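Please, structure for the following, as tokens.
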Amino acid sequence: MRALILSGLLSLLLPQAAAAQTFNEVDYTPEKTTFTLFAPSDAPAVKVRLYAEGSGGRALKTVRLKRTGNERWTADVKGDLRGKFYTFDIGRGECPGVFAKAVGVNGRRGAIVDLKSTDPEGWESDRRPVCKSPADLVIYELHHRDFSIARPGAQHPGKFLALSEPWAIDHLRSLGVNAVHILPSYDYGSVDETRLDTPQYNWGYDPVNYNVPEGSYSTDPARPEVRIREFKQMVQALHRAGIRVILDVVYNHTYDIEHSNFQLTYPDYFYRKTPQGAYSNGSGCGNETASEQPMMRRFMLESVKHWIREYHIDGFRFDLMGVHDIETMRQIRAMVNEIDPTIYIYGEGWSAGQCALPTAQLAVKANTAQLDGIGAFSDELRDALRGPFSDDTKGGFLAGVADCEESIKFGIAGGIQHPQVNMTKVNYAAAPWAAEPTQLLSYVSCHDDMCLVDRLRASIPGITEEELIRLDLLAQTAVFTSQGVPFILSGEELLRDKKGVHNSFESPDSINQLNWQNRQRYPQVFQYYSQLIRLRRQHPAFRLGDAGLVRKHLEFLDAPRQVVAYRLKNYAGRDAWRDIIVVLNAARQPQTVTVPEGTYTVVCANGVIDLRRHGLATVAGTQVTVDPQSALIIHN
């Protein structure tokens, strides 16, 4: 039976136009393997070398490729090459090529495998968990090593398989999340896969082979099929638990330029340069890729398609999406829609430096209106709550800083145009940038920057543990009752800290690992988080998913300084609660807010949520009082 290394099989369910774009570097059959490389037409020689192992040893055979078209080189090698390894060489050094889907240890040689043989039992019946709207997602961002390396009883700590273990599934399900965003899980360069007995750490934002799972997260990185099968087992287990899997993709830059597969196969084609001829550095990592180049665009399209088809991935988070051009992102969204329009795509709506393309052409947050069906993170809401990214010691709403309320309203409304949001008082955004609320990612912390606990400690000198917990819960209440798509960093439900480290991308486990004892130490935190997620899931008024409905049903109420209050009104018939009022009080004193006259059931107050029919209490009249540094949620 025919087995392919690249994405040939992936095209079968796509429209003919999309299928025609497929570019296979390695096309395997038991009778022969065809090698094809995109390389300069004037290259003096293009070769493929075959090896018995993924590292070390001399080449078994060297074959010259012939130019068979403009920038296209091809060679057929007869015989069954399954289990062998290969490299391409145009005279600048050996590499696995750009489109490799299997590699040896440390990713220096491509591997010839039958991808079908890597499928776990029952893979053909694996199904994407149902999600009717991105507003229904609750996204949980995790790093494989952080999540499981210190978990007592974990059988595969720090590995893909840890996420398939019962303890992991039970934790995620009891918390209530329905989407796991895994930090970069492709083959990256900063961890030596031959030295896994020595602790090594990196987030993985240093891409080498974009279409192959990272070997250090597998139980045997020297065997190419193992990392592929174990990644699939992880996805399968999460899907069975009703949890979608979102992949963090980093197409905006490579680990370096000189040794990258892009540069070794077609020098300078895949990178942007400044008018002065220097490599542009919009990524802040020494280079930026040129998504507008036809083959780079094709590479991104086929890479996304491969992860969907081969690994059943349910969504993509684009690192520094603002480095990519708008047209490429729109084509990716259109292609994904042909496969499954419920696959969610979002990213960072900014770059880390000046890009070589004009901002008007880039997928930055301000251009989100041109990116239908693609979301972006709201640093407006994030920084309004906890303070600016640029200074860890400065606080926001939670620390009592003035004039943060309008930016929080902007986030609660989902970043859309709302008649009660005064954009002149919103940080960073001169105008609403989301056409729909599902284009805004609501969050207060992620892997990049201090976690919430550390930020509260850094920005509020002398904060007590009790105050820290109160403000932590208040912050997440803003996130989970907003109309955007809620997103949390793993471990926040355990009151996670990283010992004050702002950028822990290569800090040791002692900084990054989750402290699982905190679940018993702070049970009220986990309980509040899980009930908050349950609140959102049970009441669709918090996830309207449509800008028109948000403008119709979301009404902000007058409130004193350090308080944001709003009403979700007249949603009877769709929600069991006709009117819902949410009050967020960051002040250290109780605050009183005027509400429409009525009799209300209190379901959230003073750090406790009770969703049972009678709730915590009943209040009546036109005024409610909110406890210090906490949220109040009532309904009638």
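The chain is about 25% helix and 20% strand. The two ends are 63 Å apart (CA to CA).
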